[in-house]
Automatic annotation (TrEMBL):
Record's keyword terms, sorted: NADP, Oxidoreductase, Pantothenate biosynthesis
Coiled coil: none
Pathway involvement of the protein, from the record: Cofactor biosynthesis; (R)-pantothenate biosynthesis; (R)-pantoate from 3-methyl-2-oxobutanoate: step 2/2
UniProt key word Ubl conjugation: no
Ketopantoate reductase N-terminal domain mapped to chain residues: 11-146
Full protein name: 2-dehydropantoate 2-reductase
EC number of this enzyme: 1.1.1.169
One Gene Ontology MF term: 2-dehydropantoate 2-reductase activity
CC annotations in GO: cytoplasm
One BP term from GO: pantothenate biosynthetic process
Function as written in the Swiss-Prot or TrEMBL entry: Catalyzes the NADPH-dependent reduction of ketopantoate into pantoic acid.
Pfam families named in the record: ApbA, ApbA_C
């Protein structure tokens, strides 16, 4: 195992949205010196005054420390980066200004964020931790947790693929907020999570449906199947061995049930799997849709767009994801509503 213990003491969580608020609160409760950093003034104020109120799977108020980015002081040993990629141009310079030569960045963002982060930070200090649980932001100081705490988990790996002592240390810290699995195949983990997001977050955003409603709708699940196939084929073309999705002690291999021939997806297998790994988070709606409802920029380019761009680079056609990206951009721009009927407009 390479590297020496980094002895992480000061932690900043950048982006205290629905997931960041929950993870930051759980790490605070575990005794870590962590501050939640966010640009939403009313949210920061309530977090400092009354704590983080987590509802849904639990109902608990947890004291936390929070601040605006321009109020950060000194340097931090670890940044847990949870702001959406749409804010990289603002958040990355803010983290750089409060880093030292051993600061570690672990990005929990959606999509394939590590290359973008590694443009600014030494690649050996960059880690990725795809999150496998959901939340819905309720308003200042409050977030809705869509799964029970014992079902929360993430995976983590280094951008270089090395298994280091720093990786183990960060994994231990994150384990105070959710179960953690360490892997040496970060890109395989990323493509697994990206496939899940492209399928269900994409469909949720254009229809307004939550994940449970999608799973129970055969027409929407057929759309999910075709989105998933393009993801799997694109990952394979890029030389990525996709990792299985873990939930409830089971493994779900997207490469197997989304890589179907012709126009014959096994919808029973695909739907039964989704019931197993995603129905426990049935109330979840896509974070892209949550942002659109709040008149914020959504991260379609980092999710659906990441599949389209990787397909272009690898010579794989992604017509379903291309249509999905264009539709989400129109919804974001206010040129069309999000509604169930939109699914009928996607051709595959």
């Amino acid at each position: 195992m390479k590297g020496e213990l980094n002895l992480i003491s000061r932690i900043a969580l950048m982006g205290a949205g629905s997931l960041g608020t929950t993870l930051g609160a759980f790490l605070s409760k575990a005794g870590y010196d962590i501050i939640l950093v966010d640009a939403y003034k009313a949210h920061v104020d309530v977090l400092n005054e009354t704590g983080a109120h987590i509802i849904g799977a639990i109902d608990e108020v947890i004291p936390v420390k929070a601040c605006y980015a321009d109020a950060m002081e000194g340097t931090f040993d670890l940044f847990i980066y949870m702001a959406k990629q749409t804010y990289n141009d603002v958040a990355i310079p803010q983290m750089l200004a409060h880093s030292h030569d051993k600061t570690i960045i672990v990005t929990c963002q959606n999509g394939l964020p590590e290359p973008g982060v590694a443009k600014y930070f030494p690649k050996e200090r960059v880690m990725g931790a795809p999150i496998a649980w959901g939340g819905i932001f309720q308003g200042p100081g409050c977030t809705y947790l869509t799964v029970a705490p014992d079902k929360m988990f993430c995976t983590i790996g280094t951008y270089t693929g090395e298994h280091t002592s720093q990786l183990e240390e960060v994994a231990k810290i994150l384990s105070a907020g959710n179960a953690v699995t360490v892997s040496d195949n970060l890109m395989g983990l990323r493509w697994c999570k990206l496939t899940l997001n492209a399928c269900f977050s994409g469909v949720s955003t254009i229809t307004g449906c939550n994940f449970g409603e999608i799973i129970q709708d055969p027409e929407l699940m057929r759309l999910v199947a075709y989105i998933g196939r393009e993801c799997v084929l694109t990952a394979k073309a890029g030389g990525v061995k996709m990792e299985p999705y873990h939930f409830g002690g089971e493994e779900y291999h997207f490469e197997e049930f989304y890589d179907f021939p012709g126009d014959d997806p096994d919808m029973k297998v695909i739907t039964d799997a989704a019931v197993g790994y995603l129905m426990p988070a049935a109330p979840t709606i896509a974070s892209m849709l949550q942002d659109i409802k709040r008149d914020l920029r959504c991260e379609v380019d980092g999710i659906t767009g990441a599949v389209c761009d990787a397909g272009d680079a690898g010579g794989i056609d992604t017509p379903v994801n291309d249509q999905l990206r264009d539709m989400i951009k129109k919804i974001e721009a206010g040129k069309m509503p999000y509604e169930r009927a939109n699914a009928k407009l996607i051709k595959f």
